[in-house]
Amino acid sequence: MPKAKLLLLEDDTSLSETVCEFLVSKDYDVIPVYDGKEAEVAIYETRFDLLLLDVNVPVLNGFQLLSRLRLEGKTTPAIFLTSLNAIEDVEEGYGSGCDDYLRKPFALKELLFRIETLLKREFFHTPQARLRIDEHVEYDTATHQLYIDQKIVQLQNKEAKLLKLFLQKKNEIISHETLMEHLWDFEETGSDETLRTYIKNLRKIIGKERIVSLKKLGYKFTLA
């Protein structure tokens, strides 16, 4: 059985190392990240079985990150590991979509128990939700992973967001403006050339015939 893959968002490097070493000793594959944006990129590029999230981290805090992921349809179970212990903080944590909330300081064994409980729950309750694109290509609508011949294909963050939008609006015309707004938020600057590059990359992966360019209108993802 493959190791469960966990993401650990923790900006305290000493605590991060301690938690990583402990979980690795328990046969988990742990990827440490140190700010919210780094975590977001990692989550879109890698399939994780569980997210361990600190709240007060640079760039994008844990509550903001998980809220954004849930709005994007990411259902990966998440545990907040935080020193915020007011009831209002707990309320905000669960409101943002967490599955568990563990206050610092915590015992490593307690963290392990909570991780094991969540992973067991996911094993027995995760639905099979594969969307068949063609005989070789499938998209998992629960985990937002792309599979080719049953193997996960890693997409860049923007490529994953683009594919998800195309599938949500399959066989519909999506304007150039809509694509630009979806891929780049107010803090980022996109370009026509970069958008074309992402579309070119997706065509190479899933077949150029799937994404049709419509002059002066936009693009359409064709799926029977």
From TrEMBL:
- The record places domain Response regulatory at 5-119
An MF annotation (GO) of this entry: transcription cis-regulatory region binding
Q: Keyword Membrane: yes or no?
A: no
Q: Which SUPFAM superfamilies match?
A: CheY-like
- The DNA-binding region ranges are 128-223
Q: Which residues carry this modification: 4-aspartylphosphate?
A: 54
List residues of the OmpR/PhoB-type domain: 128-223
Q: Which Pfam families match?
A: Response_reg, Trans_reg_C
GO CC annotation, single: protein-DNA complex
Q: Which GO terms describe its biological process?
A: regulation of DNA-templated transcription
Q: Which InterPro entries match?
A: CheY-like_superfamily, OmpR/PhoB-type_DNA-bd, Sig_transdc_resp-reg_receiver, WalR-like, WH-like_DNA-bd_sf
Q: Which UniProt keywords apply?
A: DNA-binding, Phosphoprotein, Transcription, Transcription regulation, Two-component regulatory system
**PANTHER family found in the cross-reference section:** DNA-BINDING DUAL MASTER TRANSCRIPTIONAL REGULATOR RPAA, REGULATOR OF RPOS
Q: Spell out the protein name for this chain.
A: Two-component system response regulator
Q: What is the lineage of its organism?
A: Bacteria, Pseudomonadati, Campylobacterota, Epsilonproteobacteria, Campylobacterales
